[in-house]
Amino acid sequence: MSQIVFRENTIAVETKELRMALLKIQDLKNDWEEDTNNNSKDAKFMALLNGYDDAISLANQELKQLAALKSGPAVNAKKFQLSNIVGYCKYQKLKLVMGRNEELANGIILKNKKKGMTLKHFEEVAHLYDALLQDGRAVASLPGGGFLEDFDGSTTSAVEDEFLLEANANILRLRALRCYYLAKMHASPHVNKYSEAVALLDQAESLAQEATEEIGACDQMEGGEVLLENLESVIEEMKGEKCRMLAVSYLNTNTSSTVDKCVLERLHDYGIPSATTPLAHVPPKLEPMACKPSFFDVALNFVSDYPTEELDQVLEEHGDGGSGGGESKGIMGWFRR
Questions:
Q1: Residue ranges per domain, the chain?
Q2: pTM of the entire structure?
Q3: Which position among 84, 188, 212, 222 has the lowest Cβ density within 10 Å, counted as fewest Cβ atoms?
C-alpha cells in the first residue's frame, strides 16, 4: 500500500503509519468478504468501517501539522497527497455503507413484493434512500482530485472532474428513487394523500429521466449499465403507478354524495365516494321501489300506440259521425268526452 489511485491521480503514501493503516483495512476487507456468517459478518463490517476512520484520522492529523507551515511547492505537494488519501478513505467507506443500505432496501422490496408492500415497508425503504442520498451528497463534496500544478493548498475546494459528474448523476438517481417511495407512502390506504402522491411521482419521473441521461453520459461509471437498467425498469413502474393513483384518487377522495354505490350504479354520477367502492355488488343489493296499482300493471301489458284510423271508424259508427251535434254512443264514446 505504498500508493493509491483516486480521481485519476496516483498518490504516494509516504507515512509508515498510513501504510500500515491501509494494509490493516485490506486485511479487514478480505476477511469481511470471505465471511458467510451473518452475525460475525456484521461485526467485521463495523471493524472495517472503524479501520477507515483510523486512516482518515491519521491523515487529518498530518494535515493539521502542515497547516501551520508556510505554503510552498513541497508543502502543497504534501497537502495534495494527504487530501487525496482522506478523500480516498472516505469514498471507500461511503461506498461500502451505500452498497449495504441499497442492498437492504432492495431486499425489503423483493421480500414483500409478491404479498404486497405495506406503509411500514415503504417507510423503511424511504428512510434507507434518505440515508443513501445524504451519503451520495457527501461523496460529491469529498476532497481530492485535480492536478498538483493546479492545487492552491486548499483541501476544501471542489474539483470538477469525471468523479464529480458520476457522483452528481448518482445523486439524481437516489433523489428519484427516494421521491418514488415517498409517493407510494402518500398513496398507501392509511394515508390517502393521492394528489400529493401524483405530484411526487411527476417529480420522481422527471428526476429519473435526468438521471438516466447523466448516467448514460458517464462512460466509465462503475456499474453504470446495471444502474441504467434498474432505473429504466423503475421508470416504467412509475408510469403504471401514476395511472393507478390517478384512478384511485377519483374513487377515494373524501368528498362524496354517492355513498355505498358501486361503479356500475354511478356511471353518470361524477361525485366521488368517501371510501373504496366495488365495480358491482355481488349479489345485487335490494332496493326499495314504489308499487303501482294492479290495474295499471295489467293494463300496461296491453297498451300500445292508439290506432287512430280504427278509432275514427268506431266513432263514426257509434257516434254522430264527427258532426259534433250529438253525444257519442257505445263503448268508444267515452274517448270523446
A1: 1-138, 160-252, 256-288, 294-336
A2: 0.71
A3: 222
